[in-house]
Every structure is written in C-alpha cells, then in structure tokens.
Amino acid sequence: MAARPPSRPSWPTQSCRSDRVQTALAAVNRRIKQNKRMGTPPSETPLDQRVLREQIASFYQIYNTIFRSRMAFVLVIGAIMYAEIPTRAVIVYTVAHFLLSLTILLIPRWTSQTPVCESPRWLRTITVCVLLAGVADGIAPWLFVQPGHVPLTAVLMVVLMANCARAAQSLRPFKVALVGHVVAVMLSLIAALIHEGGTYYYFLAAFATVHLAMLVRAGMQENNELTAALTLRFENEQLATRLHEQVLETERISREKTRFLTTASHDLRQPLHAISLFGAALESQLRGTREGINAQRLMKAVNALSHSLETMLDISRIDAGVVKPALQSVPIDPLLISLNHVFGPLAEQKSLQLRMRASGLHVRTDPQLLSRMLANLIDNALKYTTEGGVVVAARVRGKRVWIDVRDTGTGIAQAQHERIFDEFYQIGNPGRDRSLGLGIGLSIVKRLSKILDHPVEMRSRPGRGTSFRISLPHDPAPLAGRADAHADAQDALSAEAMPERVLLLDDEADIREAMAELLGTWGIQLTAVGNEAEAVHAMEEARTSGKPFDLLVCDYRLSEATDGAAVGLRLRADFDADLPFLLISGETAPDRLRRVHELGIPLIAKPVEASALRHVISVVSRARPLR
Predict the structure, then answer these.
(1) Is the pLDDT of residue 28 over 70?
(2) CATH code for 491-621?
(3) Which of 175, 386, 402, 613 has the fewest beta carbons closer than 10 A?
(4) Contact 315, 444 (CB under 8 A)
(5) Which residues, in sequence order, are CB contacts of 606 under 8 Å at separation 6+?
(6) 328-483 sits in which CATH class?
(7) What is the value of pTM for the model shown?
C-alpha cells in the first residue's frame, strides 16, 4: 500500500503567515493615515491622555444634538407647565433655562485640531456645563411639584427621570460630570417630594431614590467598560505601530545587507576569477610534472570556493526571475543515471549505498532545473547519512509522477520542518563545517519547485531518516525521436571549435593577464583592453588590418560604474553587428541579472572554471561561422 503523502509542503505555512502579516501591516498603514487626517495624537502620547481625548471627541460628536434638544425640550415642558400653573415664575424659569442651554451651545468648543495636552481643560469645561444644566433641571421640582397635584408631579417625575437616563448615556465617558448631573437633578426631585409629604409623594421619592442608585451604578460600569475598551484599542495600535516600525527597520537592514553582499560578492569574485585563470594556466603548464600535483590541489580549493559563490549566485538568478523553465518531455532514467555518476563516488567514499531505481517514465519538466533539484536533495541526503544509504525512485500516481529521495540518516525533528528550507539554515552544524555545505541547497529546491510548479513534500522521523517527494506531471506518450534529437544536439555541441581572435574588455589588469595566459594555452590570440576607448581603437585596427575579431568578451561592471553590456552593444553597433558577445560578471544583484537576461546577452559568472569557460566560448562563438 502506497504511503499517503503529507497534507502540505513544508513551507506554505510561512507564505500564508507572510500574507497575513502583510495584510495586517496594510491595515496599520491605513489606520495611521486616518489618524493623521483626524488629528489623532501620535503613539508617544501617554495612554491616559489619548483615552481622555477620544472620550471628549465622542461627546462633542453629539454636542449639538444634546443642547438643541434641551432647548426644544425646555420650551415644550415650559408651555405644558404654564398651562397647568400660569405663574410668572414658570415663564422666568423657562426663559432662563432656554438661555442657559443656548449659551452652552454657542460657547467655543473642542475641535479635532485641539492639542492633546489641553484635554484636561476641556474635561473641566464639559463638567461645568453639565453641572449647570443639572442645577437648572433641579430647580424644576421646587416650582412644579404642587400639593395635592399628583398627576402633574408624576408627569414631571417621568420627564426628569428620562432626562437623567439620557444624560447618563451621553455622559458615560466622564464620571464626575455624569454623577454630578444625575445627582443634582434626582436629589432635588427626591427632596421636593419628601418636602411635600404624604403617602404618594413618599412612594415617588423612594422610587426616585432607587432609580438614582441604578443610574449611577450603570453609568460607572459603562464608564469602566468604555475606558477599558479604549485603552485596549490604543495599546493594540501602539503594538501595531511598533510592529510596523520594526518591519520597516528590518526591511532597511535587509536592503543594506543585500547591497553589502552584492558589493562584497563582486569584489571577492574579481581576484578569485584571476586566481582561477592563473591556476588553470599553471596547471596546464605543469601537467605531468612533480609540481603539477600542488597545482591540482590549488585548483581543487579554488573550485570549491567557486562552487560556494556560484551556489549563492543561483539564489540571485532565481529571485531575479531570469531562470525560465523550458518544459519538455524528459525521460527520468537517463537523468538518474547521470546523477548516479556524479554522486556514486561520494557515496562509496562514505561507505553508503546509492540506488537509482529505473522506471521507464517520462515527465513534463525542464531537465536542467529538475536535475538541479534532485542533485541538491541527493547531496543533502548523503551529507546527513552515516549508515545505510539513499534511494531515488519514481512511480506513477494518476496523472502525476512521484520522485522520492529517501535516506536512512539522522532525520529532522518536527519543530525544524518549517526552517530547513530557509537560507543558510543547517541542522546540527553550529560550527559551520564547510564539508556540510552552506545550507542553501534546500532553499534552491524550494524556489525551483515554485518555478516549475513541482510541489515538494517532506516526511521525517528523527533517527529513522527523511523522505523528500517531488510531484511532476506525467508524460505518458513522449514524441518519438525527441530523445534522439536531444542526443544529436548534445553531440553537435560537444565538437568544440574555438575562435582565433578574441577581444577582452576588463578594467582589472590581473584579469587581462590571466585570460591571456589561459587562452594562449588554447591557441587563441587575445587582445585585452581596459576601457571603451582602447576597445574602439583595437576594433578599428582589426578592421583596417582585415583581421576582425571572432568574439567580444566584456566584464559587466567596468571602472567608474560603466555598464559593460552597454559598451559591448555600442561596439557591435559601430563595428560588427553580428560579432558574438559574451559577458563575464561577478554581479549578484537580481535587477542587474534580470536586465542582462532581457537583453539576451550570454552571461557567465565569476569565478569561472577553465573547462566551463572553454565550453562557453566555443558555444557563443559558434553563433557565427569563423573566418
């Protein structure tokens, strides 16, 4: 029975988490902009002042409604009471109460531009206005509570109690104002009822007392809940703002790190490229001699360092989007055989078994990128396996083909499943043992799986081993002869035809000398120049002598930030539009790699091995028949 695949790959959790973080940050940005428009104080303002300011703002949003309704209410109640008690005192009270409400309505008020430090002053203003309104309401019972006139008293009592309930709702942000207004009105009503005496009035006084207690208690609870909610809101906003600032700082540090690594990578590649060229020339000259052994050891170390830099450059190429898959029908067995040739000696050296199981299957993929994915998985498996071995097998599951890379190594703990695809992360290698690589292999696998749309799943048990599975589309009926055509093309490319005359443009004197030494051993006549003016002069002499160049090789980054790609294109446009053109560069910046890819110029990365350079020169120069 086939093993059931895991429910998800190891890395989408980070991607989903990243999406949620980006969404949250976008919401924070919108909130910050909204706060700026509304005049909301910055997060550095003390929390209690921000809460008070928000409470004042909420009160002034209904300020007009409160006091305009009071003015209308005073006129209506005054008219009703005057109809029952037609005295001058009622008229004077109604007019005075109306003018008080009008005055409070017209006095200067708080606005969103008011500094937060002035909030306590505005709190005092609100409290004074509300207390004055409460005192004015508290005079009413002494005017309108009449002996023996219970219905009128009941109407007044209902009106005052409803007014206090509405005021408590509006004033819940302010404890002092709420209690002062409600107590001023209700205590005056209770006192007036007790003063009149009698059963009905005592009952109404008791009822009013209970109502007062309930209003004060409910108001205090609502005030506490509102204050707690505002405090929590502003604390969350402060946390979100700090998170936003930290993310911006992290992004800035990341950009600086990328800029530093790009510059450092280029500066390291230049001398390493010269060492590689000089070493290859020296190795060729000393081959078969006693000193040639040391030259071989030197080149082995140089090639190991070059491989490390090339691995890091792969990350830059993929992130730049210059790696485009060329999907085709690919037989799996020849691919596994070639990988066995590469990793078989390493497995034998560690006394491990490396088994490649033939399947006869074809898949729809890019053969080079798939080979790189499998190579990284096999290399990683062999590094972390001390006993047993590694098995690579393919099988059909519906319309998909599963390629499994299983090892009997140390395994991976559950807590580390999500981190193993991160750059430079290695399990059990705190000392950064170089024999275990850089920790980039699985990161490249992750990136290539997304480019090819070949999901990768991982299962592991500590002490029992690890299994990686690549899921690819099955190609059940590959076109006849496609494999033969591919083999014929490879045979045609293998016949190297080297150019006779090459023009090299590089601002580093050591590079020019090393290239001259190396290409001289291949029978190539090299003309090396250091800038565009010298290159123009060399091209003019070649055209005058009737011996044009067969290949133009330029460094991508020349002195004074000159663009080697632009220089090479200008030279071709001025002298020979069909001249094969090759760029050599130590650049790792994704935007620059993307630009070269868009221009369609062949690019080889520094430092370059002699065999790879020879092959690329042969392929590029074959773009035009040699003279």
Answers:
(1) no
(2) 3.40.50.2300
(3) 386
(4) yes
(5) 269, 270, 272, 273, 584, 585, 586
(6) alpha beta
(7) 0.40
